[in-house]
Amino acid sequence: GRSETLQTDSYSEADGTLDCISMALTCTFNRWGTLLAVGCNDGRIVIWDFLTRGIAKIISAHIHPVCSLWSRDGHKLVSASTDNIVSQWDVLSGDCDQRFRFPSPILKVQYHPRDQNRVLVCPMKSAPVMLTLSDSKHVVLPVDDDSDLNVVASFDRRGEYIYTGNAKGKILVLKTDTQDLVASFRVTTGTSNTTAIKSIEFARKGSCFLINTADRIIRVYDGREILTCGRDGEPEPMQKLQDLVNRTPWKKCCFSGDGEYIVAGSARQHALYIWEKSIGNLVKILHGTRGELLLDVAWHPVRPIIASISSGVVSIWAQNQVENWSAFAPDFKELDENVEYEERESEFDIEDEDKSEPEQTGADAAEDEEVDVTSVDPIAAFCSSDEELEDSRALLYLPIALVPEDPEENPYGPPPDAVPAALPDDALGPDRKRPSCSDGPQAPKKKPKTTNIELQGVPNDGGCEIPGTWGRGSRSQGVWGAGRGLIPGFQGFGAPGGV
């Protein structure tokens, strides 16, 4: 049946905001949409519980702006930043498992959709790199032109292939395991003119993907046709989506959870354009606060909800909830105003208590059968087309972390003047030690292993200098005062939605 992801009259209102205190730059849902990871400009990753709309965990990940992405089972989070470091984090504990230091800033990271031991990294001014986390090895992916290193890359939906695109409009399709070239084509604008590839995004369902190019047109392709055409093919896009009136350039594009709709965020203002993929018609335009610039867009994996970022705050867009009680009681009649009730003639008749009940036959007899209330059927929306069962290890929610009160803010404690001055350990005597604040021994956190990744022809710049103040303060510090040109040629911190 037809997808119910979006209706024409939906999304007319914003459904609240998520304020991380720090300036939010990028956001991404986990695979189930229960948690939302937000990367901030002070290097922190704020994980929101999307059900309660509260902060579940804060990870101090980097010292520069961050982009992040979930692993498939939700237990790991890989982050990258303009401080040249890619890190893998344990979501439950907030500890860093391992780090990789690159010679240049990182524009994008992506887990392999089916193997979270492999990570695709897109460094600035370098060919894409595929990391293997278990042995800390890396493979530099082949590119079409060694002189053109403005390359973007993405795994396809199942991770069988890697699609790369360069500034000359050339798309390469590489086999993930062997890095062999299996297909290629060039994106052209009418004649032989080429256009730069800005991003490649795949739908969570189906074989479609989109390409955002510098000519302000979003092209939608079928991955099966690309593979059929082979090398130097000439596939035709299924749809070409653009703003013919304003010629809007696009900051970030992505598919809906079911792949039936496409949302694109304007690079000029806080405006979201939504198209229906099958016929290419513009369904809705969502306008945020005038004068704000859009930084990132993410569509909820299974619900008709869109998250967008502008002015450092995450805005939530959702459908207008209309109550329909007739869905529960088909004979229920909704009233616009009070009316006098006219009872039916037999409505209040007394039933005969001595009347014998008729014997149950057919469908009535089936009601006495035993009902299975212990088995849990997998939710189809959380399973791919080639999967039958849900992931039993999936991390859907984070437990509540108990934070002790600050002694200075304890209203029942002694006043500050009554607290004796701190004494050195020697003054307490040989047999007396300073009491521990914790009930048990604190296990020292293991220091994560850091691996240096050397790329041929890329000098180590020791981190990218970003203008502005990167303190852990609020947006009033003017952190974003440098404007939207953080790095020359930088395409943004956006990371695709969870897979």
From TrEMBL:
Pfam families assigned to the protein according to its UniProt record, in alphabetical order: WD40
InterPro entries membership: RBBP5/Swd1, WD40/YVTN_repeat-like_dom_sf, WD40_rpt
Keywords: Chromatin regulator, Nucleus, Repeat, Transcription, Transcription regulation, WD repeat
GO cellular component terms attached to this protein's record: MLL1 complex; MLL3/4 complex; nucleolus; Set1C/COMPASS complex
UniProt feature, compositional bias: Acidic residues: 340-356
Record localization: Nucleus
GO terms classed as biological process: DNA damage response; response to estrogen; transcription initiation-coupled chromatin remodeling
WD-type repeats, residues: 70-99
Function: In embryonic stem (ES) cells, plays a crucial role in the differentiation potential, particularly along the neural lineage, regulating gene induction and H3 'Lys-4' methylation at key developmental loci, including that mediated by retinoic acid. Does not affect ES cell self-renewal. Component or associated component of some histone methyltransferase complexes which regulates transcription through recruitment of those complexes to gene promoters. As part of the MLL1/MLL complex, involved in mono-, di- and trimethylation at 'Lys-4' of histone H3.
Name of the protein described by the UniProt record: Retinoblastoma-binding protein 5
Annotated source species: Ficedula albicollis (Collared flycatcher)
Classification of source organism: Eukaryota, Metazoa, Chordata, Craniata, Vertebrata
